[in-house]
Amino acid sequence: MKSISKLALAISLAGALSGCASLLDDDFQEITVNLQCNEKPIRGQCFAENSRGKWVFRAPSVVQVKNEYGDLEITCKPAYLPQFTVSVPAVPSWNLAGNLLMGGVIGAAYDVHKNTGLKYPETINISSPTCR
């Protein structure tokens, strides 16, 4: 009888934790974007874009973007340098990893579908490719 109670508790706990990142994380996040030239900070007009929106800002800056499982494209135009674009991939969040362990594949897939299981890096340092 005791083992049945433990099994029921384990199943209930796993069910409650599935979709954990969806409950704990928002579908947006703040990222810090820094531009550099020869490891020195520079300013530039930028925009970040994914399938869920486009955000215009002046780097260095903190920007609030919507999460997406696809890349975040960041295009910048520093003063006196040509415009360039970099792609920043989304990576699994700690909550998604925990959900995969505790809630299984279904809960993790739900988190990815809801755009809460993947995050962009909190700090993105971009070096201009034409900097010499």
Write out key terms for the chains shown.
3 helices, alpha+beta, 132 residues, four-stranded mixed beta sheet, 10 strands, single chain
Sequence-ordered SSE layout with sheet pairings:
Elements: H1 2-17, H2 20-24, E1 28-37, E2 40-42, E3 44-50, E4 53-59, E5 61-66, E6 72-78, E7 84-88, E8 91-92, H3 94-113, E9 118-119, E10 123-127
Parallel strand pairs: 1-10
Antiparallel strand pairs: 1-2, 1-5, 3-4, 3-6, 6-7, 8-9
Helix pairs in contact: 1-3
Question: How would you describe what is shown here?
Answer:
With 132 residues, this protein is of the alpha+beta class. It has one domain (2-127). It contains 3 helices and 10 strands. It has helices spanning 2-17, 20-24, 94-113, and strands spanning 28-37, 40-42, 44-50, 53-59, 61-66, 72-78, 84-88, 91-92, 118-119, 123-127. The strands form 3 sheets. Strands 1, 2, 5 and 10 form a 4-stranded mixed β-sheet that branches. It has a 4-stranded antiparallel β-sheet with strand order 4-3-6-7, with no helix packed on it. A hairpin with a 2-residue loop joins strand 1 (28-37) and strand 2 (40-42). Helix 1 (2-17) packs across helix 3. The longest helix has 20 residues, at 94-113.
